[in-house]
Specification:
Blueprint (H helix, E strand, L loop, with lengths): L2 H4 L6 H10 L12 E5 L25 H13 L4 E5 L9 H10 L3 E6 L12 H8 L2 E5 L5 H8 L3 H14 L10 E5 L10 H16 L5 E4 L6 H9 L3 H10 L14 E4 L5 E2 L2 H5 L31 H4 L13
Parallel strand pairs: 1-2, 1-7, 2-3, 3-4, 4-5, 5-6
Antiparallel strand pairs: 7-8
């Protein structure tokens, strides 16, 4: 049984569709495709409590070269403008650097999702200068500016490694020089919504600069979705129903137009496509139909197609909204 099936029917897809209908926004449909988000696999040097991918050092799901090559060929043929590369730790895929260089050679903007600690691991210590040379946009996880909160969520010693990695990136020009964009990613440490993104960003900038001399460009706040590890945390602590109710009660119709599932295609390590990274983890295929592969898709067919939704979608539309690009409004 997957997480979606485990949620009571009373708060499954009909309730999210009902919320959309009440605001005249049903059905949720796509606009033109602007971006690919590519998951290179679930292998990671960390195993964070909140990870919706269930990534970790023992995961074996990893994108192979034939699949990576098909994705790059498709992106070139269809003139994709932006890719967002994630994992796991995407750097641990042996094809990662080749893919980034190929996308950049095609004039495609590349964002890499980096957990920071990977930059200090043996075999990966040259990644930071490699990123800087290519001016890859970095979105780096740092769920708090205090050690206890980060280590509690991501593992003992991760905070100190993250600070050391950020200082390294700053020395290379990230967060300081034009074209070297360093964004940090926050997610709550428990069953509550993120605070104001702008206010929290200001606090992060003050604390990280005063305590560690660290600067960065933007803070992106992401709501925890009740799936995978966070779902099981909610179950263990008896908070699953109350958290789902919190999300439903804070539904914000103004966030719907900016949802990433309207303009982005999520691609898994096997090349299969989904409306978003979260649907991917629930094995909820693109459009709710039979599974498709990216190379079978025509971008012209994407616009105006319905998006597959479920109870988890309330997390992206609660409060100020949430996406891989941070708050929506």
């Amino acid at each position: 049984m997957n997480d979606l099936q485990a949620i009571p029917a009373s708060i499954l897809e009909p309730s999210f569709n009902r919320a959309l209908k009440e605001k005249g926004l049903h059905p949720l449909r796509r606009v033109s495709l602007r971006e690919l988000q590519i998951n290179l696999g679930r292998l990671c040097n960390q195993a964070c409590n909140h990870c919706h991918v269930d990534a970790g050092p023992k995961r074996t799901e990893i994108m192979t070269w034939p699949t990576a090559n098909k994705i790059m060929e498709w992106a070139e043929k269809n003139k994709i403008q932006r890719v967002d590369i994630t994992g796991g730790a995407p750097e641990m895929n042996v094809n990662f650097r080749t893919m980034v260089d190929r996308f950049l050679s095609l004039g495609i903007q590349v964002t890499a999702r980096c957990n920071l600690s990977i930059l200090l691991e043996p075999g990966y210590t040259d990644i930071a200068p490699w990123y800087a040379q290519r001016k890859v946009h970095l979105a780096c996880s740092l769920p708090c500016y205090t050690e206890d909160n980060v280590d509690g969520q991501r593992g003992m010693g991760v905070f100190k490694k993250s600070i050391k990695a950020l200082q390294l990136l700053n020395r290379l020009g990230y967060g300081r020089s034009e074209g070297l964009i360093l964004d940090l990613v926050y997610n709550p440490g428990g069953a509550y919504l993120p605070p104001s993104q702008n206010e929290l960003e200001a606090q992060y900038k003050i604390r990280l600069n005063e305590d560690f001399g660290i600067v960065f460009n933007n803070l992106l706040t992401i709501t925890n979705l009740p799936i995978s590890r966070f779902y099981h945390y909610l179950e263990r602590t008896g908070q699953r129903v109350s958290y789902q109710r919190l999300l439903v009660d804070n539904f914000n119709a103004d966030t719907v137009s900016a949802l990433m599932c309207r303009y982005l295609i999520s691609v898994d390590w096997q090349g299969r496509i989904y409306d978003c990274d979260f649907n991917q983890m629930l094995d909820l295929p693109y459009g709710g139909s039979d599974k498709h592969y990216l190379w079978d898709l025509r971008p012209d067919d994407v616009c105006d197609k319905p998006v597959a939704v479920g109870a988890h979608c309330f997390a992206c539309t609660a409060g100020a909204g949430s996406s891989c690009g941070g708050a929506l409004g």
